[in-house]
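Researcher: Last one for today. Full complex below.
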Amino acid sequence: MALSREQMAQRVAQELRDGFYVNLGIGIPTLVANYVPEGMDVMLQSENGLLGMGAFPTEETLDADMINAGKQTVTAVAGASIFSSAESFAMIRGGHVDLTVLGAFEVDVNGNIASWMIPNKLVKGMGGAMDLVAGADNIIVTMTHASKSGESKLLSNCSLPLTGKGCIKKVLTDLAWLEIENGCFVLKERAPGVSIDEIKEKTAGELIVPDYVPEMTFA
Amino acid sequence: MAGFDKVVVSYEEAMSGLEDGMTIIAGGFGLCGIPENLIAEIKRRQTKGLTVVSNNCGVDGFGLGILLEDKQIKKMIASYVGENALFEQQLLNGELEVDLTPQGTLAEKMRAGGAGIPAFYTATGVGTPVAEGKETRCFHDREYLLEESIIGDFAIVKGWKADRFGNVIYRHTAQNFNPLAATAGKITVVEVEEIVEVGELEPSQIHTPGIYVDRVIQGSFEKRIEKVTVRS
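Model: Here's the assembly. Have a good evening.
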């Protein structure tokens, strides 16, 4: 069975480490915050200028001056800091964020990522995505393995305009955990019950399948 | 006005000198921390042919979005413009030019502009459409783009508290692009919720020192929330 959005978030959460500063993109990455392991301290960075993003507020504590990068109202945790957009991107570009998780339309075997623009449809803008992928060393891309019509999103060459070049090393799809090494996707784990054949069939870029590919485990 | 007193009492005076074709740098992220009354004054003036530099362009009917209603904006420099149907329509009709700029690059363009740095190198955007037509250079085996900084004829800024000398403090995440915009205007206008007496603000807590600020005005704010999200 392909992973649900919640299971994808759970799998990404297994990559968190105590003391990590983490930037979570919109969509599935946001859900990762719900699965921070018990007893682990992680601080969430929101690129509009908040380090230490907390839960959504209550009706009583709602504040127009406290939002996240998705423009949702949020709270700050104890120990949070708030700063300008230049400071925020100094952290991001300077490589101070330990883990960045974001969605994508396509990823290719060279670590290129396309996530912001589909030509001839409305172009909304890249927001902070280009800075995040250029600045972070440890990035996890989360996306479905194939489009609704069955087209692979793991390609030899991205077909859409890029967000970043050669910057992606880890991809979690609804079918598999893959890492990009030497111009190939390497299958590291598969979703419970998903066959290697299905993953092969839905991966357009060159795929290396080791002798043993464990199934993901969830607590 | 005398000495360092930057306070003005009318929005008309606050935006005095604004002319057609000028470049305006605006603070704010989404609708958070936007100089909503200064924007309304620009609409009242019907100034045309503006280049506006801001992370977003408001929404239909609020924030910078209201300047689209009478086609006052010629060119928008922003990182994300997804919340605005009128924007989309004018863009598709060719009535509006847009220069999509990565958010961190946009922030740095303002910061550098205000700091007298004409351009800077960044890895952001290398190998993407953002790099088209830009110089690149390698440092430490990595490729970087040369990005030019931005200076505005006006910078419009929303603060929380200011003193009469134009020292400004921002509230929570309404800070965002505001302190950067404040440095990068030939004329910087700050509207705040409260003007306090000189000496009331703790000097070490000031976000924008008054040297960057030309005019300060106290306003009242709607502070519309784009996405009200509460926990159940």
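The domain at 5-208 of chain A is CATH 3.40.1080.10 (Glutaconate Coenzyme A-transferase). Chain A is about 15% helix and 25% strand.
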